[in-house]
Structure formats: C-alpha cells, structure tokens
Amino acid sequence: MTIPLEKILVVDDEESIRLSLEYILTSKGYSVTLAESGEEAIRLAKASPPELIILDLCMSGIGGLEVCRILRSWYAGPILVLSVLIREEEKIEALDNGADDYITKPFSIGELLARVRALLRRMSAGAVVPKSMSYGSLIVDFINRQVFLAGSELKLTHTEYEILAMLVRHADCVVTNRQLLEFIWGPEYKYKEDLQNLRVHVSHLRGKLEPDPRGQLFIRNEHRVGYRFLTEPQEE
Q1: Of 9, 135, 202, 234, which has the fewest beta carbons less than 10 angstroms from its beta carbon?
Q2: Angstrom distance (rounded) from CA 232 to CA 228
Q3: 12, 109: one domain
Q4: pLDDT, tens only, 61-94
Q5: Strands 138-141 vs 146-149: parallel, antiparallel or unpaired
Q6: What CATH number has the domain bearing residue 230?
Q7: 102 pairs with which residues across the strands?
C-alpha cells in the first residue's frame, strides 16, 4: 500500500525561490505544487486543498496578506508565511490575518523544514487533545493540570499554567501576544496594561522552567511578536 505524500502549496512570484523550495521539499518526500501569484494560489488551493501552504507576503497582484485573509474564509490547514519583511508589525499583521507561523528570507533549510514539520504535526493531531505532553525532562499533564521538570512538580500559578499549556499545544510555532492575551484575559483585555502583566507572568514562568540561566531554554521570546515553545530546548 502506497502512503500518500503530504501536499504543500508554495506561493512566490520569484521563480528561483519557487524552484528552490520545490527541490528542498520534494527531496524530503513532500508533494509540491507551485503558484506564482495570489490568484493562482487561491485557484489551486480550492481545486486540491494542500496539507500546508508556504506563502510569500510581497507579491504583485493580490498580496500575501489578502491571500491569507481569503484562504482563511474556508481553508483550515496551516499557512507558513515566507517574507523579506523584518518589521515586527508585518509579522504580527500576517499572524493576525490567519498565518500560523513565519520565516524570514534568507532562511536556513534546516529551520524551514523544522517549521514545516511542526505545522504538519499540529495539523495531523487534529482536534484530539492529548492527556499529557513531554519534552525531555519536562512533562505537562493536561488532565490534572500539573507540570513536572526532572521528576519534580513545578508549583505554577493558574496564569503561568495557562500560558505554558497554550504554548505547549502550539509547540515550535509562534503564539502572538494578542493570542495569549485573548486566551487568558478574554476579548476585553486592555492591551498595554495586560501585555505588561503577560510579560511578568512569562518571566516568572521561565524562572521556574529555566532556573539556571546557563541551562536549557524552553520558551523563546519572539521580539514584540510573542513567544515560541521549543520542543528541543536550546542552550542559553
């Protein structure tokens, strides 16, 4: 029995980028479809919905943000934004308009493939909520709302646990400040005031997860955008 390949739609108006991504992804066993414009991407996605879309933001015709908004009216799969834009405002706008993660050009092949794997892993999990998740010495028990590190239970506040649970459920992908604020404080949050509160809670959480500043880094700060939980903790 042949296992169907995961389909990825690559959208970029630069032919060299399209062909490069096609080569990288097909060499790893993915089935790749190419689109050189937003209009073509929408048509192809409707005709045969892919498991994942890699979308450039800066394109002639329909721009990447508008494509993202249109796709999100019916497409439920992950969207990975690929762009030369480096301003945090553009990254936040892309994420707020339906993108699941972003990577900035120029990019490393290793990082690109890691982001692709993380997004596809989230999609394959579907609506199933795991009872627990473990990464190295860290275990998060969602049923009992307990967290263990190196065999010892961490005493987290309600807010610290909610932040960690949200980040772990979206492991290896960026979670924006806005998404965290809405999840924890609801849609009526006060942005500036609660954003500072969020930063304080994350700082306290990191102090418990990463007590040794020279040790493992589980939570990475995406400057002015949000946070990312790393399934393979880095060394500070």
Answers
A1: 234
A2: 11
A3: yes
A4: 888 889 998 998 889 889 999 888 667 777 888 8
A5: antiparallel
A6: 1.10.10.10
A7: 81
